[in-house]
Amino acid sequence: MRGMGLRVAVYGGSGYTGGELLRLLVGHPEVGAIQVTSRQHAGSVVGEVYPQLAARERFVAPDEVEVPGLDVAFVAYPHMESAAVVRELLGAGVGLVVDLSADFRLGDVAVYEEWYGPHPAPELFGEAHYGLPDVFGGANGKRIVANPGCYPTAAILALAPVVERLPVSSVTVNALSGVSGAGAKATQKTHFVSANENVAPYGLSGGAPGHRHTPEIEEMLRRVEPGAPAVTFVPHLLPITRGELETIVVHLEDGTELPETGDVLGWYEEDYGSWAFVEARAEAPQISHVAGTNRARLSAAVDRRAGKVLLFAALDNLLKGASGAAVQNMNLALGYPESAGLEHLR
Amino acid sequence: MRGMGLRVAVYGGSGYTGGELLRLLVGHPEVGAIQVTSRQHAGSVVGEVYPQLAARERFVAPDEVEVPGLDVAFVAYPHMESAAVVRELLGAGVGLVVDLSADFRLGDVAVYEEWYGPHPAPELFGEAHYGLPDVFGGANGKRIVANPGCYPTAAILALAPVVERLPVSSVTVNALSGVSGAGAKATQKTHFVSANENVAPYGLSGGAPGHRHTPEIEEMLRRVEPGAPAVTFVPHLLPITRGELETIVVHLEDGTELPETGDVLGWYEEDYGSWAFVEARAEAPQISHVAGTNRARLSAAVDRRAGKVLLFAALDNLLKGASGAAVQNMNLALGYPESAGLEHLR
Amino acid sequence: MRGMGLRVAVYGGSGYTGGELLRLLVGHPEVGAIQVTSRQHAGSVVGEVYPQLAARERFVAPDEVEVPGLDVAFVAYPHMESAAVVRELLGAGVGLVVDLSADFRLGDVAVYEEWYGPHPAPELFGEAHYGLPDVFGGANGKRIVANPGCYPTAAILALAPVVERLPVSSVTVNALSGVSGAGAKATQKTHFVSANENVAPYGLSGGAPGHRHTPEIEEMLRRVEPGAPAVTFVPHLLPITRGELETIVVHLEDGTELPETGDVLGWYEEDYGSWAFVEARAEAPQISHVAGTNRARLSAAVDRRAGKVLLFAALDNLLKGASGAAVQNMNLALGYPESAGLEHLR
Amino acid sequence: MRGMGLRVAVYGGSGYTGGELLRLLVGHPEVGAIQVTSRQHAGSVVGEVYPQLAARERFVAPDEVEVPGLDVAFVAYPHMESAAVVRELLGAGVGLVVDLSADFRLGDVAVYEEWYGPHPAPELFGEAHYGLPDVFGGANGKRIVANPGCYPTAAILALAPVVERLPVSSVTVNALSGVSGAGAKATQKTHFVSANENVAPYGLSGGAPGHRHTPEIEEMLRRVEPGAPAVTFVPHLLPITRGELETIVVHLEDGTELPETGDVLGWYEEDYGSWAFVEARAEAPQISHVAGTNRARLSAAVDRRAGKVLLFAALDNLLKGASGAAVQNMNLALGYPESAGLEHLR
């Protein structure tokens, strides 16, 4: 009986990550009652609004959630809207809040405000754990888990083992993402006719790359290796629904010997071998290898002619890049096996 | 009356570039009788085999072409099969051969043989003009025009004005191409189910990038600036039919001041302003801006935080990247306006 | 010089049909100055707003159009918005108005009002010619040409020759359309993630088929054969950008002998052989055979086991189903060759 | 430990249905050791050949399968290749063979031979159960379960409750299928460039519909109601990977009163309410509602104007249309819950 397990709430259940999360939680062996919010669909059965979800729960308005007794809350709100809800939930005594927005990812309020704007709850800034467990471990008692951005997840997984071991002088992340990454809002950019048979670079402003995932990647690499360089990040929108591929160009400091491809794969194995959802292979990953799974796949190639290292990372932006990771974070924070409820996504 | 114009032959009319070429030539105001070959479909009416082409010509076997009297021959064969046909056509007195294969693109037989294999007609190596007119002008009396590769076309158009003006120390070309670029042969890679909802890096071998368009890009950049660096070239297969986008990362030699984005756009205007099919814009190009046209679109962005220049190029791999360019090359070689027969593709 | 040709205006230039029309008119040999309206983009250069269009014209607001001296106006507005503009243009003396909306397609105000709502200019109802020339000929002096709906174009082309010759007792049109048919407005339905990897029947309401193209098909078939039956019309949205395929099931009255497939193809040849853009083939048409062209392709199959005739029709919804047809209608109304400006789309 | 459960073999593990089946069996709670065959990939680890499958099993050649001790064998071979293997497995004492080919679906050898060719094991014809449990129940002791075709599954689910209750005079099935339904073989038809941005009717021969799923649908409807009419079946290939939608047109005998839409939905509820994977809804089903699940979704609409009933059915051709159904059939034959191993696909 679901009623016997964890009491869980999903704020923002009508977006893509909220919907995906709901699907995972419904099948999670430890999860009991689920509350899910949607202003727009309050009162309706989830599976009638979203026929691809079998869930029989009803959407409630955010202020209808029964907060007392909640074990875990997931907040799938846009950045700058999330923080206030997180504060409220912590104040009401919820034991664990997994925030899928960008609000608690960065370690420095000033950097947040430079890239996003005024932060709604700066006093909580230090209370969050950056939830990329495969690199930074579990929450270790912190009550906020900041679920990483999808692009940073792929980039940090590929880069962390390298910047830790080699003197890297330049990093360029060429990222390709499916349209679900752009959110459920209907815009000209997400119109089928605009996105189909097209690829569009984005996140450029004033003739310079400026996507907000840039400081997140930089900060996390510098947690691993303080001397890590600034990162150039260029995302592109692809005509697919889900999945993300990053092709990352790494330059080493002058005079550094290039590694062998096998060295890099070995480092991945060393660092990620004990984690369930990160794998390295000699073959370059493709989006179809990971779409619909919670796996991240990594690979590397070394260009001796031109003196560079190429890293490749692929994942499903809605799973390992968002909702799958959120469940993994909950599992680790609460002491369940990392893969609980995610076994069929390995 | 078509009978009154140029007498033209297309060798290899059943591939994608051959078919596209045929479509352009049928509508070309100067072209008269067209012969088109296909071993497989000899005897059949083109428009019955390929219902999307209205052409009423019949395919003939290659040895049935009436060579005497031909004004122009286009050879759309795979590399290493093309050269022998080109030799034969020149020997038979054909005035102009536009070769769409890689056989006469490079200037150095040794480089060709390193990347492709034994060359079937090395004695003709010096008689070819590299047909990227927007950079290298018209054929100027040479009887072979080597039509450039689709990836090199985009890369060289974006890079030539920059390597000519700035001391470039590193070039990485991230290329994204539609599946028509992989050819008409049915393979696991081109199966809809493999390519759809996927993106796959390719051209990697033994853990290193090794696509054959690499030396072509390098050589042409060195014709422009002998000190141009080795090029890292990483192509990816996209789930679209046509079109190509390159996001190119350029590092300058230490101590060089970064240009403004507007400087780069200005150089493009300077170098390409008088050519019909190359345009620069402040906005990054998208594949949908050029698919179905003979245009190449260029743009640039400067990452001051990380000290790099990004260049963007988009074109239709079957038009400006192949058959449209072939017609442009024919026009220039024969003294017609550059855009003859291509007006509706501007 | 364009200034010397027809003076033309396109109302509603920022929708898909308006944009496509503009592209055709820019290349039309008889067209001179083009005015094009967009409330949203007034003042901007067309080719900057829509980089896939090379047009250098500037959008103007609708009330900025210089109406006096206009030879032709095209109105690409939604139904019920179009009629008022048409009335105004006729009042101002414009010689020919091609209306791409549904406002003047039907012959009976009551039927219009049943399916659409109150008609803004019922007094003009009788002054329009239904612009499917391949069946109903040119405008023959009428100043309004009602450009047909895309679905009715395919259905009537396939059905008219059959209902004229055989006693048809039942017609079911299964229609499949690309997303451009749903218009440029960004909605949940046209969101890439909704439409991709999906097919959705639509136009059903209250458990019954109710798409507004139904009465248009019925009326035109009854102009050909007054006893033609009611039509069941079931459209589906497909994950492609352009193109439309109809698979039509025809039952004959009891006791009628089924025709041979070749008979039906022969009737098509008889009725359409002298028209440029309708073709019949033994092979069933596919959307890729006609996308990007102004052609309609027809075919037939006879199911003797089950006693039915199947008809197939394919066309490009933005060309033969909208803007290509509009140009064809203009050509015929003004005495130009049917294919003027459309030659490259055959 | 997997070793403790059912011993299972999958013949033909490198096709799409075989691969999907493997994925389901790996996660099935009752399944232990799995053997999987592939001539081409014998010796390789499944997950290395097909990186989207995490399976660590190794492919074996068909004659390397350890048959003694097998509890269940699944045969995912083409029709006419399957029957001989099925015979051999039964002869070796395997308790249950689920055949995913067409070889044992029909009840009459003569009909099989008319549509397919000489049957390799006609003596087994009567020993098979047609495995559409939602209509025909479990295998009830028969050792061969003939897994239904994907198209017949959708058609029979939608039609059986109707032909049982109303005098149906005509049935036309318009079917739309993703490309995975055409199999893993690389052909011109399955080439990305052929299938993308296209829809193609198929299964027509000599100007008449002739797809082999026709007699399967007819026979099963006649098991439900001996007077059911011949079926017109027109499949179309869609540019999506998985999923199938059928829009079915039903005429009733003259003078029969049309049902209400709600009547039809009620019959579905009556007949399928106790089965896990068939659902009826007022809203027409879309492929995205069922892709990736084992659900079939049904709906209906009544066209009173034209006197017809429309039925809609959608399912995932690789799951409810093939491998999901195969697991469901195994579950029922062996007395497990219908949904065992399929819970996450509801």
Q: Largest sheet of chain A, order of strands side by side?
A: 3-2-1-4-5-7-6
In which range does the helix fraction of chain A lie? 25-40%
Secondary-structure-based class of chain A equals alpha/beta
Mean pLDDT of chain A: 95
β-strand percent of chain A reads 15-25%
CATH architecture of the largest domain in chain A: 2-Layer Sandwich
Q: What's the overall geometry of chain A?
A: globular
CATH superfamily of the largest domain in chain A: Dihydrodipicolinate Reductase, domain 2
| Assembly annotation | homotetramer
- Unreliably modeled segments of chain A: none
Report, as a whole number of angstroms, the end-to-end distance of chain A: 25 Å
| CATH top level class name of the largest domain in chain A | Alpha Beta
Q: Rg of chain A, please?
A: 20 Å
Which fold name corresponds to the CATH topology of the largest domain in chain A? Answer: Dihydrodipicolinate Reductase, domain 2
| Biggest interface and residues each | A-B, 55 and 55 residues
Write down the secondary-structure element order of chain A. Answer: EHEHEEHEHEHEHEHEEEHEEHEHEEH
The tally of strands of chain A reads: 16
Please explain how this structure is put together:
Four copies of one chain form a homotetramer. By secondary structure, the first copy, chain A, is of the alpha/beta class. Chain A has two domains: 121 residues, Rossmann fold (3-Layer(aba) Sandwich); 167 residues, Dihydrodipicolinate Reductase, domain 2, CATH 3.30.360. In chain A, 29% of the residues lie in helices and 23% in strands. In chain A, helix 1 crosses helix 11 and helix 6 packs parallel to helix 8. Chain A starts with 5 loop residues before the first strand and ends in a 12-residue tail after the last helix. The model of chain A has no long low-confidence stretch (mean pLDDT 95). Chains in contact: A-B, A-C, A-D, B-C, B-D, C-D. Chains B and C meet through loops of B and loops of C.
